[in-house]
Design goal:
Order of helices and strands: HEEHEEEEEHEHEEEEEEEEEHEEEEEE
Strand order of the largest sheet: 16-18-21-20-9-22
Largest sheet: 6 strands, mixed
Distance between the termini: 9 Å
Shape: globular
């Protein structure tokens, strides 16, 4: 277990004992504790198999297959120049993509902003296990079950039954149905509260581009607009190719169409309703599996809820995931927002730290 302090640490040991090893506490470069969920690669084999893969790409970092990943149990919060995962605080907000990436990396070697492909692995796990979480999607309440409320960040009390007054709820303060596995040991607030930046994927004038595998978890990875790490996806084979190559996969802001290797969905529609081109050259099954592994195409045509898809194909856009306190049923673990530039900040934008050894 990666630690920067003594293995006799009582907090870590107590958390691991209470959770049966599902959670642990890792420490930042400045010695600040972070509560983390332990994701075992073997628990994601079913998701990989459904995509014709031996292992989910989230577990391959720098060409090395990892046995486990660590994802913050809580939306990140900022303290002493680092990004923490702790319960009972205001989630970080009003932060841009690049600042969020830098803040998570400031935690030290192995720390990174929870990546797009890590998020995709979790959403597929939730689908396969029937545990799509609810969350703060209606001013402190769940829009799907308004009796479920989190703790209002300002008052320190449960959000009002009438809603409206609450924006952020304190991290992890909702019921277990607001955690990814519906247990106290799950990852909290993947649905609602704040949108979360998820580096490692982008669109550029509609062209879908990704960072290979989970190399987004590497400190050295360059996410800049001109980075050579960005790869497009061949619509015919699913191979990663240079941006601008002929025959690569694109998004279009409509509900149907016939252009080659193009996926269609209108802004604000459900993510699960995305459709392939009906023309002579649709996106191949192999390419669709790559897109599904990176959360860019639905893993099923139904059963993903009303989680929404937002799209702006005019220039570079980077992903926000999960939704915010004010968008109701459009929020959810499958909700994907590709309408924000990396320089944009909002009280509804946050982020989450992760770690890989």
């Amino acid at each position: 277990m990666p630690l920067t302090i003594s293995v006799t640490d009582t907090l870590r040991k107590s958390v691991e004992a209470a959770s049966g090893g599902k959670n642990t506490v890792l420490y930042t470069a400045k010695g600040q504790p972070c509560y983390m969920a332990v994701l075992q690669r073997t628990d994601f084999v079913a998701a990989a198999t459904a995509l014709g893969m031996s292992n989910h790409p989230a577990f391959t970092v720098g060409g090395v297959l990892k046995s486990e990943l660590f994802v913050g149990q809580h939306i990140g919060s900022s303290n002493n120049g680092e990004m923490l995962s702790v319960p009972g605080v205001r989630p970080i907000n009003s932060i841009t993509h690049d600042v969020a990436v830098s803040l998570a990396r400031a935690n030290g070697n192995g720390w990174h902003l929870m990546s797009n492909v890590e998020w995709a692995a979790l959403q597929h796990w939730c689908y396969l296990n029937g545990t799509q979480p609810r969350g703060n999607t209606n001013y402190g309440r769940s829009s799907d079950l308004i009796s479920e409320r989190g703790v209002d960040d300002v008052t320190g009390r449960l959000a009002l039954e009438t809603g409206i007054a609450t924006q952020w709820t304190r991290t992890g303060s909702g019921p277990v149905s607001w955690r990814h596995d519906n247990t106290p040991f799950g990852i909290a607030d993947l649905c609602g509260n704040v949108w979360e930046w998820a580096p490692g994927m982008r669109i550029n004038a509609g062209e879908i581009q990704i960072i290979a595998d989970n190399d987004a978890a590497l400190t050295a990875t360059d996410f800049s607009a001109a980075s050579a790490a960005w790869k497009a996806i061949s619509g015919a084979t699913g191979a990663l190719v240079a941006p601008g190559t002929a025959g690569i996969v694109k998004y279009a802001n409509a509900n149907s169409g016939t252009a080659d290797y193009t996926l269609y969905r209108a802004w604000g529609s459900t993510f699960e309703g995305m459709v392939n081109s009906t023309g002579g050259n649709p996106v191949s099954a192999a390419a669709l599996n790559v897109l599904k592994a990176h959360g860019c195409f639905p893993v099923a045509a139904s059963g993903l809820g009303s989680d929404a898809f937002y799209l702006d194909v005019t220039s570079e856009r980077v992903p926000l995931r999960g939704g915010s306190w004010d968008i109701g049923s459009n929020a959810g673990v499958f909700s994907l927002n590709l309408s924000a530039a990396r320089s944009l900040s909002s009280p509804t934008f946050g982020a989450r730290p992760a770690f890989v050894l």
